[in-house]
Amino acid sequence: MMRHSGRWENLLYPASTARGGDARILAQLFRLSATSAGNGPIQMLLSCLVTPDHFLLKTIVDEAQFWQLIEATKPFGPYTIEAHYDRLLERICSLTEPEIREFAKVFHAQLENANRWEVWDAAYVINTGCGDDSFEDFKAGLIAQGENVLQTALEAPESLAQYPYAEQLIRGESILFLPFTAYQLKVYGTYDYDSSQEFPTEVLPRGRGEPSGATVGEESEALQKRFPQLFAAFWDLEEYSAERVRKRLGRGRRTSLSQADGDKFWQLVERSRPFAPYTIQAHYDRLLETVSGLTEPEILSFARVFNALMQKAHRWELWDAAYVINTGCDHDSFEAFKAGLILQGQELFEAIVESPESWGGFIGVRDLAHFGAVRFLPWTSYRIKLLGLPPDDSSSSYPSEVLPGSCGEPSGHSVGDDIEALKQRFPKLLGFWYIPEFISE
Cα-flanking dihedrals φ and ψ of residue 116, to 5°? Predict the structure, then answer.
């Protein structure tokens, strides 16, 4: 009888991709099956194919497949890096543990490939400043755009001047930690890290060392000469001046908020969203750390936007909705509820303020009224950053912008505590959230 020796192994596992252990087992399978009458290689192979636990033809995540995964998970409609992250994480979590490790190897190789001074200089221009942590985020965001965009940017960073999502790239922190997060979910079934968990080196974030090539430095004239198109498209002179002051004072990682800019405000809120199952405490902690890293004028700008949003949400209809959701809601709880709603992001905030009945099944909605610290976030950030005080020290005076103020009488009208009126106004909310025992009382 003809023996199949290595021919099947070479066919199924080409030399460039064969994983030795599986390939050797598969080859042995064919050698053994060839000696069994009526049960040749094809029959044995088919039995493996219909028995998932013994399926030996595993996919190797090589570079080509890596880029296929990136492209296949890009969101439909307007692109956001956060939506891409969600889809990519879900897809990577469906891989096997060895495949996640292979994905991580390719991902980190691409990060290393992008670790170039020229790319960092371009990121500096696009964002009017870019620290080392931000550059790691930027490279991860750039990888998420796909192979063509990455290779074009590496060859000619000026090409990003025409790229519509260039300003989103620095929001790639979640992408940077994606292999680690996917492995943790796959192996441990949780986002919550503890010291008993062990991780292979492939999935761990790592330092990149000195970038290759040469930098033109941080002077605007040199950057403008090197990247005229990027400079014209993105450079913010006002922010650059604030950055120079920040460096002179020895302050840390740059985060851009140079004026009362709603778009930048919402970017900070989104970038601080925790990667674990959402809790308002975790979101608050990350946002507090971020805002505390701003300059004093930036914190004041953040506070002005925050307080304007608190005023915008100060409506009787929303208070009534909070009353239904929480089976009661006093003044302080409503202030906490509004602040917690702001943390849910611009899209949800604006939708709920416009129509409180559109809450649907947002799982964490009851938590919003029970974590009052968010309401004081601008004030706490100012104290920590500018005064160096612990959060519970109240011995100093503060600018009015950072102080939680009274929003006065809510706009609109309330239906009060009457159950029938609340039923008529919020039929969906009442049916989904209201506690029957309270109604009976």
Answer: -130, 140
- Rounded to two decimals, what is the model's pTM? 0.47
CA distance 109 to 103: 10
Q: Are 150 and 142 in contact (CB under 8 A)?
A: yes
Domain locations along the chain: 7-54, 63-235, 265-440
Q: What percent of the chain has pLDDT over 70?
A: 70
CA distance to 4, 37, 50, 223, 329, per residue, from 29 (Å):
10, 14, 16, 61, 68
The rounded distance, in Å, linking the Cα atoms of 351 and 343 is 13
pLDDT digits 0-9 by tens, 246-291: 343 333 333 444 433 667 888 888 888 876 667 888 888 889 888 8
Rg for the chain, CA atoms, rounded: 27
Strand partners, 212: 116
Cα–Cα dist 136/211, whole Å: 11
> For 212-315, where are the alpha helices, taking DSSP H only?
220-226, 228-234, 237-248, 262-271, 280-292, 296-312
Chain-centre distance for alpha carbon 374:
20
Residue from 339, 402, 416 nearest 371 by CA: 339
Q: Tell me the β-bridge partners of 315.
A: 411
Tokens describing residue 172? 């790639």
Q: How far is CA 332 from each of CA 213, 338, 365, 438, rounded to the nearest angstrom?
A: 56, 10, 16, 21
CA-based nearest residue to 206, from 262, 146, 156, 140: 140
